[in-house]
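Ticket 4471: requesting a sanity check on a complex prediction with flavin-adenine dinucleotide. Repro inputs:
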Amino acid sequence: MTQQPLSVGIIGAGATGIAAAWDLANAGHRVTIYEAGAEIGGLAAGFKAPGWDWHLEKFYHHWFETDTDIKAILQEMNLWDNVIFPRPKTSYWIDGKIYRSEISPSAVFLPIGPLATARMGAWGAFLKLKADGLDLEQYTAHEWMLSHMGKAAYDKFFRPLLIGKFGDHYQQVNMAWMWARIRARSLRLGIYKGGFQAALNAMAARVQSAGDVTIHLNTRVERINWADGQPVLETGGGAQRYDRVLSTTSPNLLLKMTGDALADSLYGQQVGALQSIGAVCVVLALDQSLLTDGTYWLNLPATSADKRSNRFPFLALVEHTNWLPRQHYGDDVIVYCGDYVPADHEYFTLSEDELTRRFVDVLHHFNADFRPSWIKRSWVFRAPYAQPVPGVNHSKNIPPLKTPMPGVYWASMSQVYPWDRGTNFAVEMGRRVAGQIMAE
Ligand SMILES: Cc1cc2nc3c(=O)[nH]c(=O)nc-3n(C[C@H](O)[C@H](O)[C@H](O)COP(=O)(O)OP(=O)(O)OC[C@H]3O[C@@H](n4cnc5c(N)ncnc54)[C@H](O)[C@@H]3O)c2cc1C
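Returned structure tokens:
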């Protein structure tokens, strides 16, 4: 190393923070990570119930075969051999029936007719093969998909997907986001043996053995301040000065921690204008299979941005153990009922019992034999910042990784673009910001 070692304080031990720490530690810098939660992993963290040998993600998670950045870092850490890529079945629920989502001989029987199916297939192939889709950001996904895929395909497949994921914002999302989503998908889906929590724990252990890295769990940074020309991190336990600070938190939390220092700046206004939506997951451990056709991921139709007028109160029904063997989870069948809603939606304030009851109430539609007595255990997870909403020409609205506060950097899901947020892109961004910190 030609440079003097820097002391770097990182806020957040999610994939971004861990990846940044890896490059900083390998270059000889001193890294301290502060994590408000009780474990490593952030949104990708998992939990283990008694009798399980694998962690289960609080929110469904998988990697695509196109995720090259997570592959590269796991290879560098000698951990890639622990990743497996089973091929699950993903499907749509349309007019009371389950349809496989990938192109297959049965695709000609889609409920939109062969011509509309062929048109949708042709434009789908165009998007899949298009190497760079950033130019599509000038259109909304709503207008582009409607005019290219046709009304039948849009109404049956893409409008429900957009509404389900973005609610009221569904007509604002740009077409580059939709392109990236289609481009990145793969049929086989990857997971680390033991779950994402095991991956992030193993990565954190490698980061700690690579150099001078300390991780403080259960330690919330309250404020990013300034003293003698250097950033200072304030926690309940005191204040610590660093040469550089990296925050990997949501836009709101960044603004809260920096207070007046950023709020009135152009940068602060840009951060404040970023839009996002939250996520909720009810996780059920059942004693028998719900989706007996073997479907892992079932997309449910959302016809109205007002979730209450939809037939189903959530967007995705995911039978995790139709992808991974239930033996890893003490022979439990694991089912996620997941939805995306704004952070002020009632799903964030309803009691866990009430939310679970509302979701469980519709499960008999997918299996007439289902009885609530099948449920052995259940959990509720909620994340108010879960999915950025990229509007038209979004690339011009993304705040840079370097903030106007000297020595302070910010890298979050809101700066991942046009790709949909994911641990792969968190790793890419974490390493990019580490490079920038070291270069400056
Ligand atoms: C429903 C859902 C499904 C997803 N599906 C997938 C998927 O299939 N595949 C995939 O790869 N990705 C998926 N993702 C996205 C993935 O989880 C994120 O992209 C990734 O975890 C982001 O990592 P991060 O480090 O940037 O942020 P985070 O994981 O949010 O980490 C930030 C960390 O900062 C901590 N923190 C916040 N404030 C403070 C503070 N003041 N002091 C100290 N610490 C603080 C938080 O506790 C958190 O641990 C999904 C996300 C959701 C919500």
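Notes from triage: The chain has three domains: 7-84+193-274+393-439, 111-182, 276-388. Leaving this open until the requester confirms.
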